[in-house]
Amino acid sequence: MFWILGYNLNEGHQLLQSKRPSFPKLEAIKLATADILTGLSKNCITLKWKNSSCSSVEISGLDIGWGQKIPLAYDEEKKAWFLERELPEGRYEYKYVVDGNWVCNEHEMKTKPNADGHVNNYIQVARDGTS
C-alpha cells in the first residue's frame, strides 16, 4: 500500500488494521524504503563456523528472514564452514543452525536477550566495507 498505492505509511497501516489484524514491521518498511531510494552499496561479508565434526551448518536471519536458511560450505583444508554474502550497509541479526540445532557463535558479536529471552549473533556492515 505504501510503495505501490502511495499511501502514507501510518494511514496505510491504520486502513490495514481496520480490515484485519496484522502486524507489519513498520520500521523494516521505512529502512527498506531508504535502501531503495539511496541505493546502498553492498559489501562482502564472511561468516565462519569452526567445527569439523558436524554434518551441516546453515544460517537463518541476515537478509533472508528467520523462516529461511542458507547452507554454509565446508572447507576441508581449513576445517571450517563458510558463507560469503554481499549485504547492503546495516545491522543484521542471524543464528547458526548446526545439525538442526539453533545456536550462536561464541566467537562473533551477540545481541542482548530480546523480550523472549533469545540471543542472536549480529553483524554491522558499514559503507566503507568494514564489518
What characteristics describe this protein?
single chain, 131 residues, alpha+beta, Immunoglobulin-like, 2 domains, five-stranded antiparallel β-sheet, three-stranded antiparallel β-sheet, 2 helices, elongated
Task: Tell me the layout of helices and strands.
Elements: H1 9-19, H2 26-38, E1 42-49, E2 57-61, E3 65-71, E4 73-75, E5 80-88, E6 90-98, E7 101-103, E8 121-125
Antiparallel strand pairs: 1-5, 2-3, 2-6, 4-5, 6-7, 6-8
Which geometry do the CA atoms define?
elongated
Strand content: 35-45%
* Poorly predicted tracts of residues: none
CATH architecture of the largest domain: Sandwich
Tell me the Rg in angstroms: 18 Å
Q: Could you tell me how far the N terminus lies from the C terminus, measured between alpha carbons in angstroms?
A: 34 Å
Main sheet summary = 5 strands, antiparallel
**Average of pLDDT:** 87
Please report the total strand number as a whole number.
Answer: 8
User: What pattern of helices and strands is seen along the backbone?
Assistant: HHEEEEEEEE
* Secondary-structure-derived class: alpha+beta
* Share of helical residues: 10-25%
CATH homology superfamily of the largest domain? Immunoglobulins
Q: Kindly identify the CATH topology of the largest domain.
A: Immunoglobulin-like
So what's the CATH class of the largest domain?
Answer: Mainly Beta
What is the tally of helical segments? 2
Give the total of domains.
2
